[in-house]
Description:
Blueprint: H1 3-10, H2 16-23, H3 27-32, H4 40-58, H5 65-74
Amino acid sequence: MELSTIIEQHKDQYGIQTLCDVLEIPRSTYYDSFQKVESNRDCENKEITQRIIEIHTESKQRYRAPKIHKILQKESYKVSLKRT
């Protein structure tokens, strides 16, 4: 569970500063979490991860990273073996 969600659930009972102190995060980090925009890399990672899970499932969980990496390359994903 994200810390900002915990703070949102309890902010009516306690002050935001108090909750941030207890969770040991700066108050600015809490407020920055509302402005967070997902990066291109994060979007790509989600897409690639989903495809890796599909390939692994289709192979009856037999394929490992090297084989999945080859399949991803054939599907025009630009991904390294390490990232796979």
